[in-house]
Amino acid sequence: MKREDRLIGLYVHWPFCRVKCPYCDFNSHVSAQVDHAAFKAGMLAEMRHVANRLDRPSKLCSIFFGGGTPSLMPPELIAAIITEAERIFGFATDIEITTEANPTSVDAAVLGGFKSAGVNRVSLGIQALDSAQLHFLGREHSVSEALAALAMAQTIFAKVSIDLIYGLPEQTVGSWEATLQQLLELGLDHLSLYQLTIEVGTLFHTRWRRGDVLTGSDDLVADLFSITNTRMEEAGLSAYEVSNYARNGHECQHNLNYWQAQDWLGIGPGAHSRFDHQGKRIGLVTRRSPKSWLEMTALNGHAVEVETVETPTGWAREMLMMGLRLKAGVDLDLIERKCGPRQLWLDLDKLATYLDADLLHFIQNQNGDRLATTANGRLLLNSLLVDISK
Ligand SMILES: C[S@@+](CC[C@H](N)C(=O)[O-])C[C@H]1O[C@@H](n2cnc3c(N)ncnc32)[C@H](O)[C@@H]1O
Ligand code: SF4
What we know:
Blueprint: E1 6-14, H1 36-52, E2 58-67, H2 75-89, E3 91-101, H3 108-117, E4 121-127, H4 131-136, H5 143-156, E5 159-166, H6 173-184, E6 190-195, H7 203-209, H8 218-234, E7 238-241, E8 244-246, H9 253-259, E9 264-267, E10 272-277, E11 280-286, H10 290-300, E12 304-309, H11 312-323, H12 332-339, H13 348-356, E13 360-365, E14 368-373, H14 375-379, H15 381-388
Helix pairs in contact: 1-2, 1-10, 2-3, 6-8, 11-12
Iron/sulfur cluster (SF4) is lined by residues 17, 20-21, 24, 26, 28, 67-69, 102, 125.
């Protein structure tokens, strides 16, 4: 690849939702009034600012509108951002442009508008296929509304994914298997199936501290995870990342870019950028509060308030932690070439122990050896990641 051919991703954060779900710690807010014109000016200015931070021309291989609920964005705003992104960076021919969407804020006109704007992939937050579970999760839509939104999205877009949350208190192996079967009948090429996490600062966290039971037991959730991986793989949807399943060629390019610790720029409140700049790994973070993000962008043309230069060890740790989330694992030789000898960033004793215990293994492919988790290792991913990196 020529130097000028670097491909990067662009993340656009929309920080508003109709209601705040009790489990969610994303940077999302409920606001009666949103000044779309001010957001447009701020986002376009911030895009130009972060683009100017790059040391070489970089084309976009993906744009991801995340949130919050970006399906609440006016299609004209999405169109303006995509047009400016193409003008500034240029697009790879097969660029993936995804919008996250909530079933409560999509109709044919909105989705048609997104498609005309250039969006070619939608990720819909279905969350559950059971009314009691939707109620428990504080969702405003019914199962049939979610399925109707999905069917509509599938008539408009060739690439549609859904998000679902499992590991809920009343869930059993039997009920989850039935849900998986229903999911497999939806004709999807990509699904994100997340275990419910109790995040600090959420309403669920407050309830959990009071003693409410909000998740299944660890053993049950581990069983549900294993069943999920087996059923999805049997149906031809590879468990290519711990929570993500796709048919070959339908993996989310934007998220692969994160997990492979490549380069991306982020705009909007609380967005992160990570990119190589003359051999150094730069991190940027913008102001998180939507109100002060707007004030800062109006004043300075951007709201970047934190800038970091990663140490080689820190960068190696990032590549290791992100790469081990992938079934395809991570190339240790590549990390060594960028960040120095592995003993500086990898606990070699722990590595040997986990290889012996069949929690990690080396996969051989045409590009050499890659370190990856085994099916058993994936069950213990979080503790394993903490243990193995230095
Ligand atoms: C930004 S939201 C998706 C779009 C839209 N806001 C919606 O909710 O439909 C990202 C996804 O993260 C998942 N998520 C958020 N908080 C979670 C938690 N605490 N545990 C598990 N999954 C979570 C949900 O599945 C959600 O769809
Ligand atoms: S899950 Fe989605 S709709 Fe609910 S608060 Fe989080 S971002 Fe908003």
